[in-house]
Amino acid sequence: MTYKQRIDGRDFDETRPIEAKVGVIKRADGSAMFKIGNTWAYAAVYGPRNLHPKFLQDPQRGILRCNYNMMPFSSSGERVRPGGSRRSKEISLVTEKALLPVLDLEEYPNSVVDVFIELPQTEAGSRCAGICAASMALADAGLNMKDLVCAVSVGKVADKLLIDLDYSEESYADVAVADIPIAIMPNSGKITLLQMDGEVKKDELMKLLEMGKKVLTDIYEIQKKALKEKYHEVEV
Amino acid sequence: MYRELRSHIINLLNAGTRLDGRKLTEYRKPIEVENNIVKTAEGSARVKIGETEVMVGVKLEVGEPYPDTPGEGTIIVGAELLPLSNPEFELGPPGIQAIELARVVDRGIRESKALDFRKLCIEKGEKVWMVIIDICPINDAGNLLDAASLAALAALNGTKYPSFDGEKVDYKQKTDKKLQLEKMPIAVTVIKIGDKFIVDPDTEEEMAIDARLTVSSIEDGTLCALQKGGDFPLTMEDIDKMLDIGIEKGKELRKYL
Questions:
Q1: What would the pLDDT profile of A61-107 be if each residue is shown by its tens digit?
Q2: What is the ipTM of this complex?
Q3: Is A79's CB within 8 Å of B132's CB?
Q4: Does the distance separating the beta carbons of A74 and B84 come in below 8 Å?
Q5: Rounded CA separation B54/B43 (Å)
Q6: Are A124 and A70 in contact (CB under 8 A)?
Q7: Tens digits of residue pLDDT in A175-199
Q8: Suppose A47 and one of A113, A144, B138, B156 were both cysteines; which one would form an S-S bond, judging by CB atoms 3.0 to 4.6 Å apart?
Q9: What pLDDT was estimated at residue A53?
Q10: pLDDT score, position A233
Q11: Residue A86 neighbours by CB under 8 Å, 6+ apart
Q12: Is the bond preceding residue B93 a cis peptide, omega within 30 degrees?
């Protein structure tokens, strides 16, 4: 079976419409909003700040702590029970690992940088949206960073390789689907998040990573533009 | 430090003004109420009062009625003080502040009979609609209580039933049938600092509170829920004045719905 045309009419290498904004949560040290299609993420950064309990402290460097959470009404199905699931804990972990390589926390021993990601509305690709928002929020917080982090999902539906699967594609019945969320540091091209559900051949995966990288340079530009816009407002 | 801040706030109040130049019983501006902002919820709203921002989403589920009210559906209100919205909030199960927030919002809706629970009945003793209201602050710059109550009502006001075939709810299919609101209860929290009364405290003012009274009232001024908070007692005269302020300001806030 072949997948001739995407359900929502997009090109195979086209993302859903993206919206990004920085500085949306005034009480946070840094914050951002990232929307891709119907998936909507907020991120807030607090810190570097004191870390309690004390035994978690690292005298060599600050630590990064991420928490990913879906709001109870954010799923198109039943209400999501608050309090975190195994899924949200795992996503918090991989988000942390996706962001850590761009940070330099040696200047902040015994401290923590907290990143809170909240999703009011989701429809596939929520961890990637969360990572995009979080990396902008970290930059907004004024932390030393080597690079931003940009994330998107790539994948395969039936015989087609494509970018940014939406929910109907992710859950396409009767055909083979692979969903591969990735994150890269756009300047070095290095990959900081790589997961996969489904089946692909090795050469297809390598091709998908190339496709993803290309699209992520566009997302990088959107993130940079949003960051610049906030500081432009301050100048005026 | 709090003592200095408090005496500064009191000096300002005695001069008839506040840290940000507002009058004592003036809400921050702008007040914004946006409906149906979340497609995945059956109803939703975002309320901004000054820099305070709260989102509320409504999900509808089918469940069994309570044995003592077999012909009535019910509401469930949850609040999570997201650590994203305030540096003081921590991860973990809802603390006492979150529980109080949820319960005050719950009582305003329940006791005013804003929803006729009998209309939520699908099959007596078997199946009823449960209206689940979740409060999520995005930015807590003070006065979450009033913002959350307003957002909950706005969210309910635009809620549409999903389709239900008698067995399963199909959340992808929303019907045109709206949840019907019988009353419009509005919560106004009146704050006492020293011998002065204010509404809509910001973060600094919240630190200086002696006592607070949340007054929920409906269109005709009937009171439907109250909650006293803060460490200091109130006199009869205090309560008299605070109720007047609460009812009057409630009329003002209701216009934003």
A1: 999 999 999 999 999 889 999 988 999 999 999 999 999 999 999 99
A2: 0.91
A3: yes
A4: no
A5: 14
A6: no
A7: 888 999 999 999 999 999 999 999 9
A8: A113
A9: 87
A10: 62
A11: none
A12: no
CB B103 within 8 A of CB B152: no
CA B223/CA B186 separation, integer angstroms: 10
Choose the closest CB to A116 out of B39, B82, B203. Answer: B82
Check residue B22 and report its DSSP letter: -
Task: Give A25: exposed, middle or buried? Use CB within 10 Å, 0-12, 13-18, 19+.
Answer: buried
Tell me, what's the pLDDT at A234?
A: 59
Please give the residue of chain A at the shortest CA–CA distance from B40.
A76
Is residue A109 reached through a cis peptide bond, with omega within 30 degrees of 0 on the bond before it?
A: no
Distances (CA, A) of A174 to A2, A124, A170: 12, 19, 12
Q: What is the mean pLDDT of residues A23-44?
A: 97
Strands B186-193 and B196-199: antiparallel
Does pLDDT of A1 surpass 90?
A: no
Domain ranges of chain B: 2-254
Model confidence pLDDT, tens digit, residues B208-227: 999 999 999 999 999 999 99
Structure tokens at A68: 């990913």
3-class secondary structure per residue, A197-231:
ECCCCHHHHHHHHHHHHHHHHHHHHHHHHHHHHHH
DSSP reduced 3-state for A195? coil
Domains contained in chain A, CATH given? 18-235 (3.30.230.70)
- Cβ–Cβ below 8 Å for A73 and B141: no
Residues on chain A touching B139 (C-beta within 8 angstroms): 24-28
Cβ–Cβ gap A73/B134 under 8 Å: yes
Cβ-defined contact of B40 to A73 (cutoff 8 Å):
yes
**B10-28 confidence digits (pLDDT tens):** 999 999 999 999 999 999 9
∠ CA A8-A10-A13, rounded to 5°? 140
Q: B174: which chain A residues are within 8 Å (Cβ-Cβ)?
A: none
Low-confidence ranges of chain B (pLDDT < 70): 1
Residues of A in contact with B41 (CB under 8 A): 73-74, 121
Residues of B in contact with A69 (CB under 8 A): 82
Statement: B2-254 belongs to CATH 3.30.43.10: no
Chain A partners of B44 at a C-beta cutoff of 8 Å?
A: 73
Q: What is the pLDDT of residue B151?
A: 98
Confidence of residue A171 (pLDDT cuts 50, 70, 90): confident
Give me the total of CB pairs closer than 8 Å, taking one residue from chain A and one from chain B. 99
Distance CA B115, CA B48 (A): 24
pLDDT reported for residue A175: 83
Question: Looking at the partner chain, which of A38, A46, A118 has a beta carbon nearest the beta carbon of B87?
Answer: A46
